[in-house]
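User: Is it possible to get a 3D structure for a protein together with its bound compound? The compound here is alpha-D-ribofuranose. I've pasted both below.
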Amino acid sequence: MSGKIAVVGSNMVDLITYVTRMPGKGETIEAPTFRMGCGGKGANQAVAAAKLGARVMMVTKVGDDIFADNTIRNFRDLGIDTRHVQRVTGTSSGVAPIFVEPSGENSILIIKGANAELKPRDVDLAADDLKGCELIVMQLEIPLETAYHTIAFGARHGIPTLLNPAPAAPDLDPARITDVTFLVPNESELAILSGLPVDGEKAIETAARSLMAKGIRTVIVTMGGKGALLVTPQGTRKIDAVAVKPVDTTGAGDAFIGSFARYFTETHDLDAALQKAVRYAADSITKPGTQTSYATADEFEAMVTCSPLAPR
Ligand code: RIB
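Assistant: Yes, that's possible. Here is the predicted structure of the complex:
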């Protein structure tokens, strides 16, 4: 079993509408299907790692509405440690209306709700348990100050950290994340962070290296259907995508990060963990929903063994 992973991050209730097309301004159209599920980038990453057998602890906040109980129950059902999941009175839980088009592509709105109340002090309250973790994972559906504080905490205590700068935060200060072990943006987040174009692999590498020039050590760029790019001081390596028919791409980036966290903490083999993460994320887009599309360890191993996913 891999070492314990902590996610200091968000949870949301996903309200997913599958549309035939997006409505125009002032237009009402009918959509064929709706699905509600547990989501939020932090929770998704925690769930992916837990479904793959990792020991996971969640540091997050829920509101005082009916969604909160469901979110906590979902964590517990999946064996996720909820001792640092706090309820905030007078606030809604995080909610995400999502629209998925026939191509599988999604558009997401987020209402942070209680996630906006996850403060540096909450990280300090969880400090004793965080010190026992092998990796701390964060995203940006929580206050930036909390992410900065957690990265500094990890550096102080020798615990590796991973920041997924999603959704993109134009005011994120690269100087305050230089101690992060892994920065994992997608292409558009990288463009916003670096202020550079990301059209093509060479440009993506240049943009990643511009962040490394500011002190960040390792950048892993997720490129959707094109795979991922690992950029380190030692060199750059492309991890090829696998060919699948997309049904719903929502949460694919989270599947990538959760599975990477699980396999990296088990083996400390960066290349092998990234290969698995690309495959795990690809599998997730062949099914509807976010956390519901994540395979368990048995399902994933059986799939990779019995019918290896063909390189794109
Ligand atoms: O990355 C996908 C997630 O983004 C969804 O689950 C939604 O809740 C938003 O946080």
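The chain has a mean pLDDT of 95. DSSP finds ten helices and 13 strands in the chain.
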